[in-house]
Design goal:
Layout lengths: L2 E3 L3 E2 L10 E7 L2 H10 L16 E3 L1 H9 L3 E2 L2 H11 L3
Parallel strand pairs: 1-5
Antiparallel strand pairs: 1-3, 2-3, 3-4
Length: 89
Amino acid sequence: MSVYVDPLTDCLKSKIWPYDMSCHMFADTEEELHVMAAKIGLKREWFQSKGRLKHYDLTVRKRLLAVKNGCIELTRREAVEMWKEIWPR
């Protein structure tokens, strides 16, 4: 069981997301995801549970911290394939 991050991508800033770049952090299980999120200082209320991809959005700094704490870095293609396996239609 593992926790993963996809590559950083440009994103639009807004009142609730004032950052230029972000990525997704997701896991084989929600429990693992929430444990890692707590470890790197994310609030549970930031969990994105709508849609197929259950995830947290990460800033550049939080992504670095996630990788330092054991998250596996994936390419965009690897991430999409993983999402299909974790949350099939």
